Amino acid sequence: MTVPDVRLNDGAMMPQLGFGVFQVSDEEAEHAVEVALRDGYRSVDTASAYGNEEGTGRALRASGLPREELFVTTKLWNSDQGYDRTLRAFDASMRRLGLDYLDLYLIHWPMPGHDTYMDTWRAFQKLQEDGRIRSIGVSNFTVDALRRVMDESGTVPAVNQIELHPYFQQDGLRAFHREHGIHTEAWAPLGQGQGLLDDPALARIAQAHDRTPAQVVLRWHLQIGNVVIPKSVTPRRIAENIDVFGFDLGPDDMKTIAELDKGARVGPDPATFEMA
Ligand code: NAD
């Protein structure tokens, strides 16, 4: 299975579908990433907060795949925000991953009340200038936080990784991203599996295409231009989630899914989430 790339605003290419490892132990991540790489995934999304950068790194090395074929994302945790702390946290993540450059580094949450994301972003710019990171981006950033980063640093984040699924479609933020050349990356693309995948409208579309509801949801993301990083530790589902390039949803299917939006998050609200 070959996954198409999207071009980021800094010219780098990123696979449109990758593999997420949130809430997976170090050992489980090693195994799941090995399975995913065998199935054709080339992009992996981890974070220092997930505690599985070492297992992820072991699986990347064990794959024997050339480094340039892999796209690795990790994230700077909230308690590491600030210029010097960021530089140290980046080194620690790279040691755990066992890599000498990173494809994409994200500020995990803006924590606007702490007011440290600008200093953090300046450290990201420095690491990119030094050639240690190919692309720099953010996660869970609101329009206000994105505007401030762009206005004060002159650099547009390559990516904003945000909660996004049919029950929480984020049309306003997606339009802002489009206007400014920021790529939308969807976390919890399957709504973390809770409820969403049992939706009767998705079941009907899935049946009509002889696919599963998870495949229909991932296909919808791809057709609206999102990068997606579904997570599973079950080999059958890992394979199912990348097998989404051999069919198309029609305009009626897309309209039905657009109408499922309930504005319902599964995760915290970034405007108020300050856990450090
Ligand atoms: P997800 O939407 O990918 O859902 C994963 C869950 O869905 C699985 O645990 C499983 O229960 C179910 N599932 C997966 N494949 C299935 C299938 N084919 N059929 C039926 N059920 C299936 O949720 P997620 O893990 O929260 O998000 C994906 C990735 O996004 C994470 O692993 C992580 O890398 C990233 N993420 C980032 C943030 C952030 O703050 N930046 C937050 C959460 C997640």
How are the elements arranged and paired?
Elements: E1 5-7, E2 13-15, E3 19-20, H1 26-39, E4 43-45, H2 53-62, E5 71-76, H3 83-97, E6 102-107, H4 117-129, E7 133-139, H5 143-153, E8 159-163, H6 171-180, E9 183-187, H7 200-209, H8 213-223, E10 227-228, H9 235-242, H10 251-258
Helix pairs in contact: 1-2, 1-9, 2-3, 3-4, 4-5, 7-8
Description:
This protein has 276 residues and is an alpha/beta fold. It has a single domain, classed as Alpha-Beta Barrel (TIM Barrel), CATH 3.20.20. It is 40% helix and 15% strand. It has an eight-stranded parallel sheet with strand order 3-4-5-6-7-8-9-10. Strand 8, helix 6 and strand 9 form a beta-alpha-beta unit. Helix 1 crosses helix 9 and helix 4 packs across helix 5. The protein is globular and about 55 Å long. The model has no long low-confidence stretch (mean pLDDT 98). The site of nicotinamide-adenine-dinucleotide has 26 residues, from helix 9.
What keyword list fits this structure?
TIM Barrel, two-stranded antiparallel ribbon, 276 residues, single chain, 10 helices, binds nicotinamide-adenine-dinucleotide, AKR, Aldo/ket_reductase_CS, Aldo/keto reductase, alpha/beta, 15% strand, NADP
